[in-house]
Amino acid sequence: MTHSSGTDVREYKAVLGHFCTGVTVVTSIDRGTPAGFTCQSFSALSLDPPLVLVCVRKESATWPGIRRSGRFAVSVLAAGQQAVGDRFARSGVDRFAGVDWRPSPAGMPFIDGALAWVECSVSEEIDAGDHTVVVAAVTALEAGTARDPLLFYRGRYLEHEPREAVTR
Ligand SMILES: Cc1cc2nc3c(=O)[nH]c(=O)nc-3n(C[C@H](O)[C@H](O)[C@H](O)COP(=O)(O)O)c2cc1C
After folding, report:
1. Domains of the chain, each with CATH number or no CATH
2. Where do the Flavin reductase like domain residues begin and end (predicted)?
3. How far is the CA of 56 from the centre of ligand 1 (A)?
4. Rounded CA gap, 34 and 81, in Å?
5. Pocket residues: Cβ below 6 A from ligand 1
6. CA angle 29, 63, 86 (to 5 degrees)
7. What is the pLDDT along the chain (168 residues), one digit of tens a residue?
C-alpha cells in the first residue's frame, strides 16, 4: 500500500516510471558555446498563447547557462537516437561532440535527426520541490519526416527498430 506521506524515492520512481514519455534534448547557446541536457519532462502547455514547459533539476549545472540566454530549443528525439539521449545526460564530456545540429531561427541548436523541434523563450520559472517548472513561449516550430519516437519507460529506453521514414 502506498501512502502519500511516506513515499520513498525508490517507490516514487518505480510507480511514476510507468508513465511512458518521449525524450527530448533541451539546448541553448551559453555565452557562445552550445549547451544542453536530456529532458523527459517536456510538455505542451498552452495553445493561446503557445506555451510549453520543462521541469529542470535545481542542481542542474547546465540550466543556469541556458537561463542566462533566455532562449532554448527542444529537439524531440527519434527512435535510434538513444546515444544522443545518453550523451546529453552525461557529465564531464563534450555533449555536442559528434552531434550534428543546425541553428533555429534565433540561433538555438536544433539536433539533426530529431522528430520535431521547438524554439522558445523563457517566460516564467515556478519553484517546485527539487525542480523548477520552466514555462516558455514558443517562438518557432518544425516537424521532421514522421518516424518512430524514442521512448522512456520504467527507467529505460524502449528498444525498437526505427521504421523507414514515411510521408505524411
Ligand atoms: C531519459 C532522461 C530524461 C531526463 N529528464 C530530465 C528532466 O526532465 N529534467 C532534468 O532536469 N533532468 C533530466 N534528466 C537528467 C539530465 O539530463 C541530467 O541531470 C543532466 O544532464 C545532468 O547534467 P546537468 O547538471 O548538466 O544538468 C534526464 C535524463 C535522462 C537520461
Report:
1. 21-156 (2.30.110.10)
2. 16-159
3. 8
4. 19
5. 23, 37-41, 55-57, 60-62, 85, 88-89, 91, 152
6. 85
7. 455 557 799 999 999 999 999 999 999 999 999 999 999 999 999 999 999 999 999 999 999 999 999 999 999 999 999 999 999 999 999 999 999 999 999 999 999 999 999 999 999 999 999 999 999 999 999 999 868 999 999 999 997 655 555 554
